[in-house]
Amino acid sequence: MAVSKLTLAATSGKSCKILLGLRLLAFSATLSAAIVMGLNKETKTFIVGKVGNTPIQATFTAKFDHTPAFVFFVVANAMVSFHNLLMIALQIFGGKMEFTGFRLLSVAILDMLNVTLISAAANAAAFMAEVGKNGNKHARWDKICDRFATYCDHGAGALIAAFAGVILMLIISAASISRLVQPNKCCSTTASPSVVP
Question: Which residues form a coiled coil?
Answer without folding.
Answer: none
